[in-house]
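Ligand-bound model needed. zinc ion.
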Amino acid sequence: MAEPIHLKVSCHACGYTIEGTARYGPGHYVQEGIPFEFIAIGKEITAKGRRVKAEAICVCPKCTVKNKYLI
Ligand SMILES: [Zn+2]
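Prediction:
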């Protein structure tokens, strides 16, 4: 079962708030809102435990600019 990661970001170009989910891991998941492309780039060990470092890419539904975020 894939893990859905909820994201809320603002578009770099027009400032529109983009909300959606990215999929982490293999398997089925339920898409909510705008689909994000999720690229894992590493892992971090913090006091709260393990955390995945990743890039998320999505297309703004308002101005169609492609945005990239570090999460
Ligand atoms: Zn935009």
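The pocket of zinc ion is lined by residues 11, 13-14, 16, 60, 62-63, 65 (CB under 6 Å).
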